[in-house]
Amino acid sequence: MEKYTTYRDKGTGISPFLPLNKPKVNVLLRLVGVVIGIVKLLALSIVGLLYPVVPLLSIKAVLFLLNVDVDISVDNIKKANKSLIQSNLPQKGDFVISNYQSPLDPLVLSLITNNRLKHIVWLIPDIEGNLYEYSLAGVVGHALSLPNLHAQKNGKKIQLSSIPESKTVYLFPEGTTSNNKSILPFVVTADTVSIPKLFKKFKVKAVSIKNENPYTTTPIPQPIASYLLTNLFARTSSYYRLKEFILDKDHTWPEIRDLLSNSGRLKLVGKDLSLEKKVEFIKKFR
Ligand SMILES: *[C@@H]1O[C@H](CO)[C@@H](O)[C@H](O)[C@H]1NC(C)=O
Ligand SMILES: *[C@@H]1O[C@H](CO)[C@@H](O)[C@H](O)[C@H]1NC(C)=O
């Protein structure tokens, strides 16, 4: 992988855009995988048809079929105090800042949100820090495609002031996905999104997401069909570790980025591994 050294972080040695290594699987297990995969593919088609009727249940079923296991904790709350954790999870009036590694991340976030699916607003910035609103499917698509530097294809440009307090807002300040190891530089700054201003309307939280499954993280673009097939047939599970931090209005963007690293479990890569660098990397990688 030496030809990609310019896309390696100088401080940590991490290549945030490089897909993770996939484990070797023997022939027999692969055969079992094919049989289970076909059954799951049928189940997934049924779940897909049911989505308009029971969206939340369908999301649950998709994550189940893709072997996703979610573990969530809240900073400063004991793991055993389940009710207190539950009451602090993202809800109506919350603005949540999160990192982003996989098209499954918005599905997992939908499930931990105590608000109706249609009241969740998904925001991804472009390279200038302008915010674009996406649908749930739009975020899934974004995680699977080449990042758009400027105008966002499937997003709608939006001002924060126009979002009602009844919503739960998710913002992905990196503007694109990376692999399981890093937090990319943020494209939003205090100039584009002011934390004290957010506090006038919302309770602000940060959620750090770590998922080490090389099949579900998508640092580089992948067609959705190939993504689904790989994950239905691969039989590796995704163990999602989520940690929520409750912020106060004095938190700065660099401090929030630090929190998302969850005490170094994810590494903060340098400014030169930007959105433009990722686009350049993808061209070379193909
Ligand atoms: C959970 O935390 C709350 C608030 O600190 C406390 O009142 C409650 O007793 C705790 N419950 C458990 C099961 O520890
Ligand atoms: C994900 O990152 C951690 C380091 O933070 C590493 O130990 C682990 O091997 C990575 N997972 C994969 C599948 O590479």
From TrEMBL:
The chain crosses the membrane at residues 27-51. The keyword Ion transport does not apply. Coiled coil: none annotated. The keyword Lipid biosynthesis does not apply. Signal peptide: none annotated. GO terms for molecular function: acyltransferase activity. InterPro entries: Plipid/glycerol_acylTrfase. Keywords: Membrane, Transmembrane, Transmembrane helix. GO terms for biological process: phospholipid metabolic process. It comes from the Eukaryota. Pfam families: Acyltransferase. Residues 86-186 form the Phospholipid/glycerol acyltransferase domain. This is BA75_02747T0. It comes from Komagataella pastoris (Yeast). The gene is VPS66.
